[in-house]
Design a protein that fits this description.
The complex is a heterodimer of chains A (181) and B (520). Chain A is an alpha+beta fold and 181 residues long. Chain A has seven helices and four strands; from the N terminus they run ααααααββαββ. Chain A has two domains: 57 residues, no CATH class; 92 residues, H-NOX domain (Alpha-Beta Complex), CATH 3.90.1520.10. In chain B, helix 5 packs antiparallel against helix 6, helix 5 crosses helix 13 and helix 9 packs antiparallel against helix 11. The chains are: A alpha+beta (181), B alpha/beta (520).
Chain lengths: 181, 520
């Protein structure tokens, strides 16, 4: 995955456990600032190793860590240098998810080599979205669940996300939410 | 080819479109225009809500064959649209889109839904925005890397210092052990059993010394002894080796005229300098030639003509290395001593720079003279070891300036370790020196007021006044005094001055006695 993801994991560990915890993680994995270069695309194995180490330090399972990181990534992106892009992508949950592929098109052009997923809204009803997720990666379902959960919060709603269906080449997520406004 | 779009399809492709009749009345509005201009209604005249920029409204429908570029700004000024007007029998379609800028992205006035799915402006503007975001993050990364480097440098510096002080303390202990083992050997060496035990202690101390040497190297410490060296002897002793450095295709002449004149220097340091100069000379002559190495003693400015600002004429030993190579241009000459600069494809640029550092540290200088096609000569000047004003000191204390008689060679010994002080004093007294032992800098200062000394032998790292501070004061009060510093650790703050001798702890008794004898 690209370095911006690594930087976000680092910030999450910073926020939760402090700088020393991150330095210990870096030491354990033998990584440093050169593994945190924003536009660099790194081997997924490294990203998974970082998440796995973070989960051990946060005392949660890797799945739980991926979910929490998905939620955290939304906050990280909306408050960091990606804020304007996040705002531009959509002003409500449905339009944001509808435009995710267009966002990823730009990310893919800016970071050649990044393997980006695709999201298609297959059903849209008031308070309910069915989104099909495609990726050549596996094992990131919890991360995607966390992302959707984080998006529900971002748009001032409350709700739930679950996996509705595992298809041959995709996963369908069901988002049920209620606008608080 | 005729394509027909429903209003919904048109809205997907051009969310900001407008359909007008031939009188400019609005017949349909794209969803993005409605979103940004909630008061706009079908049936309004377009000119009532928009200004047409650079377009003559009266002639708008005059030529309806092709497409007409168009730019609209809402009366309130918040909505900017541009694109083209496409005409048909009933009027026209304004195929326009919002003017997207980074600013309108940043302030959140426009969103992706305001643009058609295939609109390339979205991708290009997002790319610019993403690259800006990546630049910001890269800048943050660069700052992190700089901090990381600072942190590493600071850690290294702390490690250096800790290693240095650990080395110092161990060296002090080893020095006491070694000097006392020597003392045992001197006093009871005739007893075989004691002699064996003393040797064991001595050898173990020497092994301990090797460990502290490693610590010293980690701490980039000066480990070479600085002592008066007969430069001609040094060259003679290494004659065969220097010949092998020059190689067989080049004629090599050595002309030594400095006789027994000495300079206080590091033996290995000077040898390295000469080797560096010979290698440079050899490499300037890939097809053979001639190198001469000569020494002489002269009086005058020891520094180059261009650097004669603060120096006063004095006696010095001049070492010259001349080659008959291709010489250097002015431009090359001006950069020759620059660290990491080299005119050679595989050169490191460290050779001449290290020669200059050595020359400066020893109180001398080095410079080049060269002309293209006429070879290069390097002048390395080092101060003579015994230029001090002996008479001046002797006069101050009403003494003769002649060489001291046995038993009147006065040594001021300063050492804060009581056992080392006692052992050194006893050893020097046994050699016939008159020793004034001082356990602190303050005591040494008082002693300097009371009589003239031939030699100051002092530790460097001590509580209160350091050895270098004492030495500076002693050299000022008694210009003829010979200074020998001894230490297991030389902190950066304690810079040694040219002419001062230096011996590293733990000391070998014989080496120390030789150094003292040469100073006296």
């Amino acid at each position: 995955m690209y370095g911006m993801i690594h930087r976000a994991v680092r910030q999450m560990v910073f926020d939760e456990l402090g700088e020393d915890a991150w330095l210990a993680l870096e030491h354990k994995l033998g990584i440093g600032p050169t593994e945190l270069l924003t536009g660099m695309v790194y081997d997924d194995a490294l990203t998974i190793a970082i998440i796995s180490e973070a989960s051990a330090r946060l005392n949660i399972s890797v799945d739980a860590c991926l979910f929490e990181f998905g939620r955290y990534w939304i906050k990280y992106a909306e408050h960091g240098s990606l804020a304007s892009i996040m705002n531009f992508t959509g002003q409500d949950l449905a339009s944001f998810i509808k435009n995710l592929d267009r966002l990823h098109l730009a990310v893919g052009a800016a970071m050649p080599g990044a393997r980006l997923p695709s999201f298609t809204t297959i059903s849209k009803e008031p308070g309910r979205l069915m989104v099909e997720y495609r990726s050549d990666r596996t094992g990131l379902e919890q991360f995607v669940l966390g992302l959707f959960d984080g998006l529900i919060t971002r748009f001032g709603a409350t709700g739930d996300v679950k996996i509705a269906e595992h298809k041959a080449n995709s996963i369908v997520f069901e988002l049920q939410y209620q606008d608080e406004s | 080819m005729l394509l027909t779009f429903t209003e919904q399809q048109l809205a997907s492709l051009l969310p900001a479109y407008l359909r007008l009749d031939s009188s400019l009345y609005i017949k349909a509005i794209g969803p993005s225009v409605v979103e940004h201009m909630p008061d706009i209604r079908v049936g309004m005249r377009c000119t009532d809500v928009f200004d047409f920029i650079h377009t003559d409204i009266e002639q708008f429908f005059d030529n309806t064959d092709g497409v007409k570029p168009i730019r609209l700004v809402s009366h309130c000024g918040r909505t900017h649209l541009f694109g083209a007007a496409v005409f048909d029998k009933t009027g026209c379609i304004l195929a326009v889109r919002h003017v997207l800028s980074e600013e309108s992205m940043n302030n959140g006035t426009l969103h992706m839904n305001d643009f058609g799915y295939a609109d390339p402006v979205v991708l290009s503007t997002m790319l610019i925005s993403l690259q800006r975001a990546m630049l910001e993050e890269s800048q943050a990364t660069a700052i992190e890397l700089a901090h990381e480097r600072e942190r590493s440098a600071s850690l290294l510096e702390r490690t250096d210092r800790v290693a240095g002080y650990m080395g110092h303390d161990f060296n002090n202990l080893l020095s006491i052990i070694r000097l006392n083992a020597d003392r045992l050997l001197r006093k009871f060496g005739h007893d075989e059993k004691i002699s064996n035990l003393a040797q064991i202690i001595r050898e173990t101390a020497a092994r301990g010394s090797n460990i502290t040497q490693s610590l010293m190297k980690l701490s980039h410490q000066q480990t070479d002894t600085l002592l008066p060296i007969v430069i001609d002897d040094l060259i003679r002793e290494n004659d065969t080796f220097l010949n092998s450095v020059v190689g067989s295709g080049i004629s090599f002449d050595i002309d030594l005229q400095a006789a027994t004149c000495e300079s206080v220097i590091s033996y290995n340091g000077l040898l390295n300098c000469i080797i560096n100069l010979l290698i440079n000379a050899r490499e300037a002559m890939p097809h053979g030639g001639r190198i001469s190495l000569s020494t002489s003693v002269a009086h005058g400015l020891a520094t180059s003509k261009s650097d004669s600002g603060d120096t006063e004429p004095s006696a010095y030993i001049a070492i010259c290395v001349a080659d008959s190579g291709s010489g250097m241009s002015e431009a090359l000459l001006s950069r020759a001593f620059e660290p990491l600069f080299s005119s050679k494809p595989k050169g490191t640029g460290l050779g001449l720079a290290s020669v200059r550092d050595f020359a400066k540290e020893m109180g001398g200088d080095v410079w080049l003279e060269s002309q293209v096609g006429e070879g290069t000569t390097v002048y390395l000047h080092l101060p003579l070891a015994n230029p001090s004003a002996e008479a001046q000191t002797a006069h101050k204390f009403g003494q003769s300036a002649d060489a001291p008689a046995i038993g009147t060679r006065h040594i001021l010994l300063v050492e804060d370790e009581p056992y080392a002080l006692e052992t050194l004093a006893e050893m020097l007294e046994a050699e016939g020196y008159a020793v004034t032992p001082c356990a602190s800098g303050e005591q040494a200062m008082q002693a300097l007021e009371q009589q003239a000394y031939h030699v100051l032998l002092t530790d460097i790292v001590m509580p209160g006044q350091t050895g270098t501070e004492i030495a500076r004061k002693a050299n000022l009060d008694q210009p003829s005094i010979k200074t020998i510093l001894m230490s297991g650790y030389v902190p950066d703050s304690a810079s040694l001055e040219p002419g001062w001798m230096f011996i590293r702890k733990p000391m070998d008794s014989d080496e120390l006695l030789r150094l003292v004898a040469s100073a006296v």
